[in-house]
Amino acid sequence: FFFQAEDGIRDYKVTGVQTCALPIYRALMFGSVTVDPAKVGCPVLVLGGEEDRIVSEALNRKTASHYGAPLKVYPGHAHWLIEEPGWEAICDDALAWLAAARAPQAVAAE
């Protein structure tokens, strides 16, 4: 990346907006950075909002497919799922998925 963390910190101090993730986001979205799913060593879950205008449902499907991950799209929700009304149900779903994803590891460790 042609980016230094200090740039984002400086921008945050001046504008109050955290920008250090922006170059990473752009690189991932435009394909200049790729992730080999075989090298991802943790379970992946893709969550999205049906009304999201930042990350499309098509991109969520592509991401889920890339990682072989389940996808759950929430009707009536937009991009910031954890701050929208009904966030509790979304968190419950994520926690249930995480507990199920961890279960085989717990059994193997015993």
Low-confidence stretches: 1-14
Count of discrete alpha- or pi-helical segments spanning 4 or more residues: 4
Q: What is the element string, with H for helices and E for strands?
A: HHEHEH
Q: Major sheet: order of its strands?
A: 1-2
Terminal Cα span = 42 Å
Percentage of helical residues? 40-55%
Structural class of the secondary structure composition? mainly alpha
Strand percent estimate: 5-15%
Overall body shape:
flat
Overview of this protein structure:
- This protein has 110 residues and is mostly helical.
- It has four helices and two strands; from the N terminus they run ααβαβα.
- The protein has helices at 5-15, 22-29, 57-67, 87-109, and strands at 46-49, 71-74.
- Strands 1-2 form a two-stranded parallel sheet.
- The longest helix is centred in the last third of the chain and has 23 residues, at 87-109.
- The radius of gyration is 17 Å and the shape is flat.
- Residues 1-14 have low confidence and may be disordered.
Provide keyphrases for this structure:
mainly alpha; flat; 110 residues
